[in-house]
Amino acid sequence: MNNGSASFHLVATLGGIAVFSGVLLALTYEVTKPMIARNESEALETAVLEVVPGAVERENYRLDEQGLRKLAKDSTEEANVYAGIDEQGERIGFAFSGEARGYADVIRILYGYDPVQKQVIGLQVLSSNETPGLGDKISKDADFQENFVALDASLTHEIVTVKHGEKTEPWQIDGISGATVSSKAVGQALRDSTHTWVPTLSAALEERK
Amino acid sequence: MSEKPFSDIRMETFTQGLWKDNPVFVMMLGLCPTLAVTNSAMNALAMGLATTFVLICSGLLVSLLRNVIPKQVRIASYIIIIATFVTMADYGIKAISLDVYQALGAFIQLIVVNCIILGRAEAYASKETPGKAMINGAGMGFGFTIALLCLGVVREIMGSGTFFGLQVMPDRFQTWSIFVLPPGGFFVLAGWLVLFSWLQERKVRREAV
Predict the structure, then answer these.
(1) Residue A1 covered by a domain
(2) What is the CA radius of gyration of chain A?
(3) Within 10 A of A45 (CB to CB), how many other CB atoms are there?
(4) In terms of residue numbers, what domain contains B120?
(5) Is the ipTM above a cut-off of 0.85?
(6) Closest residue, chain B, to A40 (C-alpha)
(7) Domain total for chain A?
(8) Residue B187 has pLDDT above 80, yes or no
């Protein structure tokens, strides 16, 4: 075998394997794509229904300076807020997402907001990488979750995380001892996110009246 | 090498990876995922099965192509083949369960550089018939899965009081968070290694008598 055909053989082998692997990956991607999309939408659905208590259905909305627009189920436009609809078909609350830096990585949350009471009515941690047994209590601890049943979000006062057992006001979050950084991060995420969304939503709802 | 290239498939082909050459407890390979993803039994099982899938598929393909791939580019070819199957496993897990996918994180992609797989491709599949390579890969994969489960089950019971997510310890049980944290992985691995080497030594001593 001379040099030319030897190197051709090398290139052909690698090329052949790469083409084969490309075909295999494209097939897998096509097969799993709808399943992955369905999983993601189900996870979002569960999360929205969880943070808006009493809701049985989810609606997608786009909220910006132009107002609040309902998106069709198959709309290509990306939704940034969701609404929980109860059995009577009433829109009982909105779900917003928020994020802040935690102890290990960015913590992403989804929370329910009641525009009538101006309160946070439920919260779920969508993704976090907090220390198991300590920081990850923010998604499991029942006492901590109690904070978000009726948390004042009228923005007359900042939402703030206080030390465990020192909560006295409706806009304060009772922190978890041993998970100070993580519970503060949840407070930060809520504070930032309500500052962005609550005034925009109020303005949009006002305009409709 | 004592292996004859065209000998029949024997029980030993499969059981080699389960006990005699168990990838974790005997060969000490793949310790990074072993320590990192065994904080719950479910994660351990998912990681083990994903690795088994990659071992079987890459074993088959490497063995089929063993006379085609030139020596100079064999490692590059193996890596492309392995990476292809890892990406397929990655999509597959995402399509089956988002929760498991998020728990395993980057460790699924890192199966590509798991030395158990490249080791099998280089030391076994590239020299043996496709049938033997697949069965040996399956044995190694199951051996790896069993080892991960050994760690995962102990760590989950001690650290969270649950077994595959089901509460098994009484409510009074104070969970030992250290078991689900990184140091716990080292402790439990060391414990199992002590147990297995003690069993091995006892067996050798008995045979000597």
Answers:
(1) no
(2) 23
(3) 13
(4) 6-208
(5) no
(6) B98
(7) 1
(8) yes
